[in-house]
């Protein structure tokens, strides 16, 4: 998926993986796999701010951006 689409963040990879396979994985499982596999490299971060909805407080979400090592 990364070879065809280029750089993707963890959330995009998770969404693509879980839509293709019947038994999906969690965000923590995926991040662990990407982090320990030498074929992938972390190239940066994306920071997003999520607005609060009255129950949950506003939060900063930080997602890693991944690419394939050449």
Please explain how this structure is put together.
The chain is of the alpha+beta class and 70 residues long. It has helices spanning 2-5, 10-20, 27-36; strands at residues 8-9, 40-50, 59-68. Strands 1-3-2 form a three-stranded antiparallel beta sheet. A hairpin with an 8-residue loop joins strand 2 (40-50) and strand 3 (59-68).
Short description:
This protein has 70 residues and is α+β, with helices and mostly antiparallel strands.
* Total DSSP helices: 3
- What general outline do the C-alpha atoms trace? globular
Query: What proportion of the residues is helical, as a percent range?
Result: 25-40%
What would the average pLDDT be, to the nearest integer? 89
Task: Give the amount of beta strand, in percent.
Answer: 25-35%
- H/E series: HEHHEE
Number of strands: 3
Q: Report the span from N to C terminus.
A: 15 Å
Strand-pairing-aware structural class: alpha+beta
Radius of gyration: 14 Å
Give the strand order, joined by hyphens, for the main sheet.
1-3-2
What characterizes the major β-sheet? Answer: 3 strands, antiparallel
| Unreliable sequence segments | none
Notable traits:
70 residues; 36% helix; alpha+beta; three-stranded antiparallel β-sheet; globular
Please write out the topology:
Blueprint: H1 2-5, E1 8-9, H2 10-20, H3 27-36, E2 40-50, E3 59-68
Antiparallel strand pairs: 1-3, 2-3
């Amino acid at each position: 998926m990364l070879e065809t689409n280029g750089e993707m963040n963890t959330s995009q990879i998770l969404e693509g993986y879980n839509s293709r396979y019947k038994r999906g994985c969690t965000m923590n499982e995926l991040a662990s796999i990407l982090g320990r596999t030498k074929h992938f490299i972390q190239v940066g971060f994306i920071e997003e701010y999520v607005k609060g909805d009255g129950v949950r407080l506003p939060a900063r979400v930080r997602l890693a951006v991944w690419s394939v090592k050449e």
